[in-house]
Amino acid sequence: xxxxxxxxxxxxxxxxxxxxxxxxxxxxxxxxxxxxxxxxxxxxxxxxxxxxxxxxxxxxxxxxxxxxxxxxxxxxxxxxxxxxxxxxxxxxxxxxxxxxxxxxxxxxxxxxxxxxxxxx
Length: 120
Fold this sequence. Notes:
By secondary structure, the chain is of the alpha+beta class.
């Protein structure tokens, strides 16, 4: 369903921690996060406390997740979120590229979710 996630350990519950193993460009990576908002079928949001890519060392207040809004009996709008504040001048300079990359990644994730749902 999610094109990058290979395994998740932990719970999807408010306050719970989990580890997401991912594959990015064929490389095994992971994130460690704490659920900061959860409402089944409507929202899941987590604060990323650590990741193996090093991105969490360049930013603060990094959160990511999804919201779902039912439009009718057969249509749900899924919105991907990722927010963070850059740490340092160099990261500020790179911000347009970082935001573009996050947008591309979110489009890939949403495309994978759409494909999964439509195949069922």
